[in-house]
Each structure stands twice: as structure tokens, then as C-alpha cells.
């Protein structure tokens, strides 16, 4: 009878070890699933942005380039289509086609510089660099 508590204690210790190991396996699997979901979202975003760019009116931006940004938390994909000289930039939702921002520099001054956040809030800006920063901030985290 003296050995029963010791055997029980060893059994509980072994069980605790195995449960801890299983918990680590589940956490690792969750992290891998989250990473896979992020990569899938980014891939879909990149493909849709390329499609939006390909289907743009060529008379508006004949020599343009584009970039896409994906917000995992909001599951949103935006595309920025820019003129070759970066003096004209359009920001839109790549899937919904909704206009989300515009930057236009003409006659040595900023004519338009605005970005609409996912919350609906619109912010103004004063330069192309400000516009780029606002675009990045719309995709880095959910905004109020």
C-alpha cells in the first residue's frame, strides 16, 4: 500500500508531461494554420491586384505600376496604381473596386491627397510620402 501514492504521483507526472506535449503540438498547428491563412490571403490579394492593374483604363495610366497591400485582420486587399513619375496615385479596394484614396501632384503642388480608412474616416495628407504612409497604415491594423 505504500507504493500506491508513489505510483499515482508518477502516473500523474507522466500524464501531465504528455498533456503539455500535446498542448505544444496544438499551439504549433494553430500557428501553422494562421501562417497558411495569411499566405493564402496575400496570394489572393496579389492575384486580384494584378487583375485590377491589367484591366485599368490604359489612357489614364499608360506607363503605370502598382502595388498591393493585404490586411489580415480585416481580410481586405487594396491596390495602389501609380503613374510612372508617382505624381498620380489611386488607391482602391481590389475586390470591391471601391475608391479609397487619391494623390495628385500638378504644377508643383499637391492638388489632392486623401485616404479613406476602413472605418469610413477620411484623412488628408500633404505629400506623396504622407499618402504612402496612410496607405500602409490602412493595412497594418484595424482602425477606429
Topology:
Elements: H1 3-54, E1 64-71, E2 76-83, E3 88-93, E4 99-106, E5 109-116, E6 122-124, H2 128-140
Antiparallel strand pairs: 1-2, 2-3, 3-4, 4-5, 5-6
In short:
The protein is an alpha+beta fold and 144 residues long. The protein is 45% helix and 28% strand.
Question: Could you characterize what this model shows?
Answer:
- With 144 residues, the protein is of the alpha+beta class.
- The protein has one domain.
- It is built from two helices and six strands, in the order H-E-E-E-E-E-E-H.
- A six-stranded antiparallel β-sheet has the order 1-2-3-4-5-6, with helices on both faces.
- The longest helix has 52 residues, at 3-54.
- It is elongated.
- It starts with a helix and ends with a helix.
List keywords for this structure.
single chain, 144 residues, alpha+beta, six-stranded antiparallel beta sheet, 6 strands
Strand content: 25-35%
> Radius of gyration over alpha carbons?
25 Å
So how many helices?
A: 2
**Which structural category do the helix and sheet elements fall into?**
alpha+beta
In this structure, how is the largest beta sheet organized? 6 strands, antiparallel
Separation, N- and C-terminal Cα atoms: 65 Å
Query: What's the total number of strands?
Result: 6
Strand order of the largest sheet: 1-2-3-4-5-6
Uncertain regions: pLDDT < 50 for 5+ in a row?
A: none
Return the string of H and E elements.
HEEEEEEH
Number of domains: 1
Percentage of helical residues?
40-55%
Mean pLDDT: 84
Shape, per Cα inertia axes: elongated
Amino acid at each position: 500500500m505504500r507504493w500506491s501514492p508513489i505510483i499515482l504521483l508518477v502516473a500523474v507526472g507522466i500524464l501531465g508531461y504528455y498533456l503539455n506535449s500535446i498542448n505544444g503540438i496544438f499551439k504549433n498547428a494553430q500557428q501553422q494554420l494562421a501562417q497558411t491563412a495569411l499566405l493564402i490571403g496575400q496570394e489572393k490579394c496579389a492575384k486580384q491586384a494584378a487583375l485590377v492593374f491589367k484591366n485599368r483604363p490604359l489612357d489614364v495610366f499608360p506607363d503605370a505600376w502598382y502595388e498591393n497591400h493585404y490586411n489580415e485582420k480585416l481580410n481586405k486587399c487594396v491596390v495602389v496604381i501609380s503613374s510612372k513619375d508617382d505624381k498620380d496615385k489611386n488607391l482602391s479596394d481590389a475586390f470591391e473596386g471601391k475608391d479609397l484614396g487619391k494623390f495628385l501632384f500638378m504644377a508643383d503642388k499637391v492638388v489632392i491627397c486623401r485616404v479613406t480608412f476602413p472605418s469610413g474616416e477620411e484623412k488628408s495628407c500633404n505629400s506623396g510620402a504622407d499618402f504612402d504612409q496612410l496607405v500602409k497604415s490602412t493595412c497594418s491594423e484595424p482602425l477606429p
